[in-house]
């Protein structure tokens, strides 16, 4: 007899990216598919020292249960670090989550009834879309240009969808497009959020990885009405393997995330929180980030230069000022999934853009990651892909 | 203007236990309230060695993203360890979760539509009830005796509730009662599950901590139809601070947990999984567990002896053969919450039983943990409580 699952299970499938990651684990694949940081930059020696000290000096507490909100000294340090994106907050405004992914999933759970609308960028991060889908929402997508969401479209969407529950945005070096929302648009977005009394989920995993220009103030930094929920993470600035991120929100909203966290998994890893806290005490994370930026900037330059030189006419791509991804647009008659099938035969992988669109799945795009591959492989991989493109 | 949360948020509140834990963090409190293992038994030196080796020998992989299902060598070792509860399974049957709490929450998400029925023991683990509540179920409670759920009641509940989605049970040293389901009842429960084609969520965080007698076979070990979902954890046998548990289920069911895990937080901590894997390679977890059992058995003995000696007539308690808790029943006219208020003035804490009942909240019970306090504090704490009880 068939097993009777919840209706929501019909709505969620495995992420195409995660399935791809499995394919691309073979060591001879040049993969631009994942969103992986460069592992050769992980501070292994420092972590060894940190881990030793935590176990020796606070080992019993580090392996025990702890509070749902997270380790207080870490939350204090996160609050201080929020000044980088101009947010003025305190430990009490923060809950530690299992990466920013958990903050996304919680946002769905806290706000969305079946049939409610989530407003998002088009395209948008597919891991967020998948997390939200468990709550059976409708997505209303807002087109973007080089300055982010187009505000006229956003206002129309807000007018037409009084049951919209939140606006989901990645203002800095968006996943998958690499685009950054301009300051003017940020202000306008907040103005609209206030007008329509709608929360904003601001997802900022890459904001500190800016290669040039000034860091723009987070939406949260300009939020005078407590409607912005800010999601941060150490995954891209430190390491993803520890699964430590955070949510900053106003007290009423944050208290909902806390009860949801209790039910979800009680708390994040106590020892991971204490290790990151020690690292922040003992070492200079900003110097570490400066080093990551140097490496990624070079890789981005190399990827864009090689695309410029090698890709056939009619293929365009974005020029991200930071983060991990560029978004490639192929000629309209090509299907990125078919390109990927051919390129994987040449041992080169990327993510076909289809799955980043919750509605009409535009087929002629691809997301390319430049943070994870060394320079020679970036050049070689783009060259191979250029050959595939020329053959089509 | 008010913020418009999802309806489910009206149904979930903070766990009374987690709130209590905050109160009981003051060092002079003798706390029988939490479900905390004894921190002085955590293998700190071994972990220091393990952590060093993992960072030196596989550091880059240990800090990177990995697969949603979990680290394969760890899943292989978990599969082997499942033979302790007589379950024959392979790595492919297992997904690693953030403690067994996450497996509970996923069970709600995978199976429950609003208004569906969850059948559970009365009383039951309140962390599970809270996790399930996010999916707006109805609970149907089954009374217990010393051998666990009463099967005649269970059959009646299954007959009367065709929209029941799963049976939730903790067969070994149940939380909060400390009771163990007899072998005969286990067989009957499975027979009923097959007859009514209903999945069974078997939550077994304490099964390996048996102080006397034989480990009973898990429900999962006798499950020929793939209807049992087994939840395990390292929280009580190793440490809770790393948040590593697991789910064992048949392929169709497990695949649902995997997509849910992707959306929830992508994966568990890579480094925690690799550290536990290394620990299992380098050290003898069974010897470590034997040591935990020795200590907890003595603490249980001491708590029960002292209760026997000091508590006034009319107070009864269960005699668990393992695990972390005994369940105290006060005279019917007393309210455990009021007893707790008085006992906290005497610096002794326990959990009033009310919140372990999803329906009618019987007031004259309390859950007492004996694993976390040293022997002298157990004696002192029970004596102080006895005084409070005598004064009422």
Classify the oligomer.
Answer: homodimer
Helix content of chain A: 40-55%
Extract low-pLDDT stretches of chain A.
none
Q: Which overall shape of chain A is indicated by the principal axes computed on the Cα atoms?
A: globular
Largest interface: A-B, 84 and 84 residues
Number of β-strand runs of chain A: 14
Second rung of CATH, namely the architecture of the largest domain in chain A: 3-Layer(aba) Sandwich
Fourth-tier CATH superfamily name of the largest domain in chain A:
Type I PLP-dependent aspartate aminotransferase-like (Major domain)
Structural class of chain A: alpha/beta
Span between termini of chain A: 48 Å
CATH class of the largest domain in chain A: Alpha Beta
Order of helices and strands of chain A: HEHHEHEHEEHEHEEEHHHEEHEEEH
Output the strand order for the largest sheet of chain A: 2-9-8-7-6-3-4-5
The average pLDDT score of chain A comes to 95
Strand content of chain A: 5-15%
- Whole-angstrom Rg of chain A: 21 Å
CATH topology of the largest domain in chain A: Aspartate Aminotransferase, domain 2
Count of separate structural domains of chain A: 2
Main sheet makeup of chain A: 8 strands, mixed
**Helical run tally of chain A:** 12
Task: Describe what you observe in this structure.
- 2 copies of one chain form a homodimer.
- Chain A is an alpha/beta fold and 392 residues long.
- Chain A folds into 2 domains: 9-43 and 287-391, Alpha-Beta Complex (Aspartate Aminotransferase, domain 1), CATH 3.90.1150.10; 61-282, Aspartate Aminotransferase, domain 2 (3-Layer(aba) Sandwich), CATH 3.40.640.10.
- In chain A, 42% of the residues lie in helices and 15% in strands.
- Chain A has helices spanning 16-23, 44-63, 72-81, 99-111, 126-133, 151-160, 183-195, 251-265, 270-282, 285-310, 336-345, 375-391, and strands spanning 30-31, 94-97, 117-122, 138-145, 148-149, 164-169, 200-203, 228-233, 245-248, 316-317, 325-329, 348-349, 351-352, 365-369.
- Chain A has an 8-stranded mixed sheet, with helices on both faces. A 4-stranded antiparallel sheet of chain A has the order 10-11-14-13.
- In chain A, strand 4 (138-145) and strand 5 (148-149) form a beta hairpin.
- In chain A, helix 10 runs parallel beside helix 12 (375-391).
- The longest helix of chain A is centred in the C-terminal third of the chain and has 26 residues, at 285-310.
- The radius of gyration of chain A is 21 Å and the shape is globular.
- The model of chain A has no long low-confidence stretch (mean pLDDT 95).
- Chains A and B meet through helix 1, helix 2, helix 4, helix 5 and helix 8 of A and helix 1, helix 2, helix 4, helix 5 and helix 8 of B.
């Amino acid at each position: 007899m068939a097993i009777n699952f919840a209706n929501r299970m019909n709505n969620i499938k495995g992420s195409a990216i995660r399935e791809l990651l499995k394919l691309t684990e073979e060591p001879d694949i040049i993969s631009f598919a994942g969103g992986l940081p460069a592992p050769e930059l992980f501070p292994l020696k420092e972590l060894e020292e940190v881990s030793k000290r935590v176990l020796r000096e606070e080992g019993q507490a580090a392996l025990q249960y702890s509070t749902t909100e997270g380790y207080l000294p870490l939350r204090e340090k996160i609050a201080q670090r929020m000044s980088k994106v101009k947010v003025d907050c305190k430990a009490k405004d923060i809950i530690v989550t299992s990466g920013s992914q958990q903050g996304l999933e919680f946002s769905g759970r806290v706000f969305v009834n079946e049939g409610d609308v989530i407003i998002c960028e088009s395209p948008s991060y597919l891991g967020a879309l998948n997390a939200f889908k468990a709550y059976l929402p409708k997505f209303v997508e807002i087109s973007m240009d080089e300055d982010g969401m187009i505000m006229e479209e956003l206002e129309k969407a807000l007018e037409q969808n009084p049951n919209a529950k939140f606006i989901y945005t990645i203002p800095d070096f968006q996943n998958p497009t690499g685009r950054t929302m301009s300051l003017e648009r940020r202000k306008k977005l907040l103005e609209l959020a206030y007008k329509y009394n709608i929360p904003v989920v601001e997802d900022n995993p890459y904001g500190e990885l800016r290669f040039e220009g000034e860091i723009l103030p987070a939406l949260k930094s300009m939020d005078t009405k407590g409607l912005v929920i800010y999601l941060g993470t150490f995954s891209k600035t430190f390491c993803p393997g520890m699964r430590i991120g955070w949510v900053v929100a106003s007290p009423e909203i944050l208290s909902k995330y806390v009860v949801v966290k209790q039910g979800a998994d009680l708390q994040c890893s106590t020892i991971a929180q204490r290790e990151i806290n020690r690292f922040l005490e003992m070492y200079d994370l900003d110097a570490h980030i400066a080093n990551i930026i140097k490496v990624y900037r070079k890789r981005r330059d190399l990827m864009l230069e090689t695309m410029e030189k090698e890709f056939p006419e009619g293929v365009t791509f974005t020029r991200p000022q930071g983060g991990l991804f560029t978004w490639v647009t192929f000629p309209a008659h090509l299907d990125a999934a078919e390109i990927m099938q051919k390129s994987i035969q040449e041992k080169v992988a990327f993510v076909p853009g289809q799955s980043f669109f919750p509605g009409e799945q535009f087929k002629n795009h691809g997301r390319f990651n430049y943070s994870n591959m060394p320079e020679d492989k970036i050049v070689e991989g783009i060259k191979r892909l250029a050959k595939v493109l020329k053959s089509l």
